[in-house]
Write a structure and sequence with these properties.
Elements lengths: L1 H26 L11 H46 L1 H15 L7 H7 L3 H26 L3 H9 L4 H37 L6 H10 L3 H34 L1
C-alpha cells in the first residue's frame, strides 16, 4: 500500500483537486446551478439509486460481453487466416480495411431498421465497432512472430492446429491483446451510444433518462458511476496486457 501511494500520490492529488474544484464551483453557484448541482445532491442521488445503477451495469455487461466474445472470435479467425496466408492477405486486406473505416454510428439507422429488435441492432453495432483493432492486431502479431519460435516448431515437427495453438497464437498474443484493449475502448463508446438512444436498461440509459427529466444530480451520479466502472474494466485488461507483455519478453 505504501508503494502505491508513493507512486500515485500526485495522481491522487489531481483527482482530489478536480473534486474539490467542482465542490467549490457548484456549491457557490459560480456556474449554471441547474446543470451543475451541489456535490451533496449528487451524493444523495448516488445513495438513493446505487442499486439501480448496479442493475443497469449488469444489463450493460449482458450486451457488451456477448458482443466482445463474438467480435473477438471473428477477429481471431479472419485475422489468423490473413496473417498466415500471404495471398489471402494481398487480396482481402484492402477490402477489410475499406469496410473498417466506415463509422459504426453511420450504420445505426440501417441496423435499427433491419434488425428484429433493438438488442440485436445494438449487438451488431458493438461487434462492428469492436472487431477491427483486434483483427488488424492479429494480422500484425502473426506477421511479426520471432522466427525462432517458428524454427523451434519445425524442429519439434509441429504442424496444423497444434502449431497454431501452441506456437503461433501464444507468440502473437501480446499484439492481439493490445488490439483487444483498443477495441474495448471503442466498444464502450458504442455501448453507451446504443443505450442512450433506445435501450430500457443500461448505464448509458440511466444517464440519458435523468438528463431528459432534467434531474442533473442523478445524471451526474450515473455519469460518475459509469466512468468509474469503465476505468476499472480498462485497468484490469491493461494489467493483463502488461503482464502478458512482460512474460513474452522474459
Amino acid at each position: 500500500m505504501g508503494s502505491f501511494f508513493k507512486k500515485y500520490w500526485i495522481t491522487i492529488l489531481v483527482f482530489v483537486g478536480i473534486v474539490a474544484a467542482y465542490v467549490v464551483i457548484a456549491d457557490n453557484r459560480l456556474v449554471n446551478a441547474f446543470l451543475f448541482p451541489p456535490a451533496a445532491q449528487i451524493g444523495k442521488a448516488f445513495q438513493q439509486y446505487w442499486q439501480t445503477m448496479f442493475i443497469n451495469m449488469f444489463s450493460s455487461f449482458g450486451l457488451l460481453v456477448p458482443a466482445l466474445i463474438i467480435a473477438t472470435t471473428i477477429a481471431l479467425v479472419v485475422g489468423s487466416v490473413l496473417g498466415m496466408n500471404k495471398r489471402a492477405r494481398e487480396v482481402l486486406h484492402p477490402v477489410v480495411y475499406t469496410i473498417s473505416v466506415i463509422p459504426s454510428i453511420l450504420l445505426s439507422p440501417f441496423a435499427l431498421l433491419l434488425a428484429p429488435n433493438f438488442w440485436v441492432a445494438s449487438l451488431f453495432l458493438i461487434i462492428y465497432q469492436t472487431i477491427w483493432a483486434t483483427l488488424f492486431a492479429t494480422i500484425t502479431g502473426i506477421q511479426t512472430i520471432n522466427k525462432t519460435y517458428l524454427d523451434n516448431a519445425a524442429a519439434l515437427e509441429l504442424h496444423g492446429a497444434k502449431k497454431f495453438f501452441k506456437v503461433i497464437l501464444p507468440a502473437a498474443s501480446p499484439s492481439i491483446l493490445s488490439g483487444f484493449v483498443t477495441s474495448l475502448r471503442g466498444s464502450f463508446v458504442m455501448l453507451v451510444y446504443a443505450e442512450m438512444y433506445g435501450a430500457k436498461y443500461g448505464m448509458g440509459f440511466f444517464v440519458k433518462k435523468y438528463a431528459d427529466y432534467g434531474l442533473y444530480a442523478e445524471t451526474w451520479a450515473g455519469f460518475v458511476f459509469l466512468v468509474v466502472v469503465l476505468v476499472i474494466v480498462m485497468q484490469v485488461f491493461e494489467h493483463i496486457k502488461s503482464r502478458l507483455l512482460s512474460w513474452s519478453i522474459d
